Amino acid sequence: MSQTLRDPREIIREEMTMHGVITAALADGPLTVPQIAEAIGRPADEVVFWVMGMRRYGHLVELADEDDGYFPYALAKEASK
Questions:
Q1: How far apart (Å, rounded) are the C-alpha atoms in residues 68 and 27?
Q2: What's residue 70's pLDDT?
Q3: How far is 16 from 27, CA to CA, in rounded Å?
Q4: Which helix or strand (DSSP H or E) is residue 73 part of?
Q5: For residue 73, what are the β-bridge partners?
Q6: Is the dihedral of CA 5, 6, 12, 14 positive or negative?
Q7: How many CB atoms lie under 10 A from the CB of residue 41?
Q8: What's the rounded Cα separation, in Å, for the pair 66 and 12?
Q9: Digitized pLDDT (tens) for each residue of the chain, 81 residues in all
Q10: What are the residues whose beta carbons fall under 8 Å from the beta carbon of 70, sequence distance 6 or more?
Q11: Residue 26, phi then psi, degrees to nearest 5
Q12: Cα–Cα distance between 64 and 43 in angstroms, integer?
C-alpha cells in the first residue's frame, strides 16, 4: 500500500470530486478501503478520508467485518434495499 505525502487539507478538498468516482467503484457491490483504492487508482490513505466523509454524511454505510480486518462499505441507497 503506498502512502501519500500530501497535506490532509488538500486531500479533503478533493472529497466532492471523488464522490462520483467512489460511487461508481461501489456500483457492483461493497468494497473495503484497500479494494476501493485499487479500483480507483488512488492511495488507500487518501481513500480513507473520502470514505469517512461519505459515511459521515450518509452516502455510504459500513457493513459487518468480513474477518480480514477491513470493513466493507456500500452505497447507502443499496444497503437499504
A1: 22
A2: 87
A3: 17
A4: strand 73-75
A5: 31, 62
A6: negative
A7: 7
A8: 28
A9: 456 578 888 988 898 899 999 999 999 999 999 999 999 999 999 999 999 999 999 999 999 876 678 899 999 986 555
A10: 32, 33, 34
A11: -90, 0
A12: 23
How far the first Cα of the chain sits from its last, in Å, is 33
Q: Which of 62, 63, 64, 60 is nearest to 76 (CA)?
A: 60
Query: Does residue 25 contact residue 37 with C-beta atoms inside 8 Å?
Result: no
Cell 478501503 -> residue: 33
3-state DSSP assignment of residue 51: helix
The per-residue pLDDT for 80 is 57
**3-state SS class at 16:** helix
